Amino acid sequence: MHSIHTQVGIVGAGPAGLLLSHLLHLEGIESVVIEAHSRQYVEGRIRAGVLEQGTVDLLIATGVGDRLRQEGLLHHGIYLSFDGRRHRIDLTGLSGGRSITVYAQHELLKDLIQARIDAGGQILFEAPAVSLRDLDTATPAIGFRQDGQLHELACDFIAGCDGNHGMCRPSLPEGRLAVYERLYPFAWLGILAEAPPTSEELVYGYHERGFALFSMRSPKITRLYLQCPRDEEIANWPDDRIWGELRTRFATSDGWAPAHGPIVHKGITEMRGLVVEPMQYRNLFLAGDAAHIVPPTGAKGLNLAVADVRVLAGALAEFYTSGRRRLLDQYSKTCLRRVWKVQRFSWWMTSMLHRFEGDGGFDQRRQLAELDYLTSSQAAMTALAENYVGLPIEGC
Ligand code: FAD
Ligand code: DHB
Predict the structure, then answer these.
(1) CA 307 to each of CA 36, 120, 181, 276: distance values in angstroms, whole numbers, following the listed order
(2) How far is residue 59 from each of residues 62, 73, 109, 225, 304, measured CA to CA in Å?
(3) In angstroms, what is the span from residue 274 Cα to ligand 1's centroid?
(4) I need a surface site. Which of 154, 236, 273, 292 has the fewest CB within 10 A?
(5) 3-state DSSP assignment of residue 168
(6) Cβ(288) – ligand 1 distance below 6 Å
(7) Which residues are near ligand 2 (CB < 6 Å)?
(8) 316 CA distance to ligand 1 centroid (A)?
(9) Is 75 part of the annotated catalytic residue set?
(10) Which residue's CA lies nearest to atom 9 of ligand 2?
(11) From CA 239, how far away is CA 248, in angstroms rounded?
(12) How far is Cα 56 from Cα 364, in angstroms, rounded to an integer?
């Protein structure tokens, strides 16, 4: 078996793992990232698209924001569509000048991978981690497979950034983690269409047939989502049915509608809320989707991953400069305070905008009243805006 050593062993080259490696490098801390998939797969996987102001500021301040600044789409508001009308929420006006930026997650990953490679950083692709050992000691290690052989990465700390289906979370000794979970009884069908966006800002739609979301990726590509049943088969959604359902759910008196175009990607996303406590065991730290999942309404998953690794990088920097574990020991507590607030916001957006099976006229009228209140109350819109553009990151 071949063994290598580094200061921080990172499992997973998603936003959490790659950004952590980049931030550690800026602090003079060495890391190695181990990724199960190929570079091509990681750079092509279609996922998130909305970056909070704090995420954008961090990427620019740490030198990986050039393309984001050129190609990202700056948004100052969103629309809520219900009862045949669209209502704008002025995010920037209500949040003291903050905004969001639409920039595809896989474009951000390309930027982070390039930055690590340019700086001589090590990312091992097609190298799935298979075991973690000696987590109780000062010399933990990650066992991984590459080119059909078993290897070992010995390190001072392990960062579990391997997402919802990774191996770090289940590697903790039995009984060390409490798991809090909610499965939502529906899913999202998402498409990418080669069609120019017909609204400059996102449209979140509530309709008696279910939720719909209009987003975008570029001046030529529209991103659209529809609430659909859980465990839905993609084969049940031919293109005509998707366009028909979007037309119905977005129908408003101003005649606005998304433009049609060839559908170049279709996928189904389950809706889940999950938090593990604590996000740390000895020298293993969980970050991003490995520690928590939020339902996608509100666009928070990637941004939460960024917030976690920002806290973790700061704590590791304190350790390596002073030997103190104060921030490392507070890592879980610091992150969880924000994680639960974001979980609450995602749950609230999801509950307000989706149709729940079994809900009757009472619930529908209650949801419409909530949307009516929200879009007519400055206080309520301000609460949405400050959460949507991103809550402050504590401990930094
Ligand atoms: P991941 O991105 O899942 O990365 C984990 C990495 O670990 C993967 O590359 C995986 O291959 C690797 N890995 C797994 N197991 C192993 C192993 N054993 N060994 C080595 N590597 C391993 N969030 C937002 O903020 N805004 C949005 O607009 C938004 N929209 C979304 C839309 C959709 C359709 C979906 C599915 C998600 C969306 N999200 C959004 C959520 C966001 O994509 C995730 O929260 C984000 O990817 C989490 O990053 P991560 O680095 O923690 O995990
Ligand atoms: C997108 C995804 C979301 O979950 C959301 O709330 C807004 C936009 C997107 O993929 O563009």
Answers:
(1) 23, 25, 21, 16
(2) 5, 15, 12, 27, 14
(3) 14
(4) 236
(5) coil
(6) yes
(7) 48-50, 202, 213, 215, 223, 296-299
(8) 23
(9) yes
(10) 49
(11) 14
(12) 37
204 labelled catalytic: yes
Phi then psi for residue 332, to 5 deg, are -65, -45
Say which residues have a Cβ less than 8 Å from residue 95's Cβ, sequence separation at least 6.
Answer: 382, 385, 386, 388, 389
What's the pLDDT at 395? 57
* pLDDT band (50, 70, 90) for residue 396: low
Q: Tokens 């289906």 sit at which residue?
A: 165
Among 78, 189, 202, name the best residue to mutate to test ligand 2's pocket (greatest count of ligand atoms within 8 A of Cβ).
202
In the structure encoding, which two tokens stand for residue 358, read together? 């079994």
Q: Judge contact between 386 and 298, C-beta under 8 A.
A: no
Q: 314-368 pLDDT, tens per residue?
A: 999 999 999 999 999 999 999 999 999 999 999 999 999 999 999 999 999 999 9
- Where do we find the tokens 């028909």? 244
Let me know if 219 is a catalytic residue. Answer: no
The answer, yes or no, to whether any atom of ligand 1 lies below 6 A from the CB of 189, is: no
Q: At 54, list the tokens.
A: 């704090």
- Comparing CA positions, the residue from 246, 137, 144 lying closest to residue 188 is 246
Considering every ligand atom shown, identify the ligand nearest to the alpha carbon of residue 36 and give its number. 1
Tokens of 43: 């750079």
How far apart are the C-alpha atoms of 232 and 380, rounded to whole Å? 34
Tokens of 332: 């879980």
Q: Tell me, yes or no, if 388 is annotated catalytic.
A: yes
Indicate whether residue 35 lines ligand 1 (CB < 6 A): yes
- 333 a catalytic residue: no
Q: How many CB atoms lie within 10 A of CB 258?
A: 22
The finding on whether 15 has its CB within 6 A of some atom of ligand 1 is yes
- Residues 6 or more apart whose Cβ sits within 8 Å of residue 220: 194, 195, 196
- Residue of the CA atom closest to atom 46 of ligand 1: 302
Whose tokens are 């400055």? That residue is 378
**Which amino acid is located at 315 in the chain?**
A
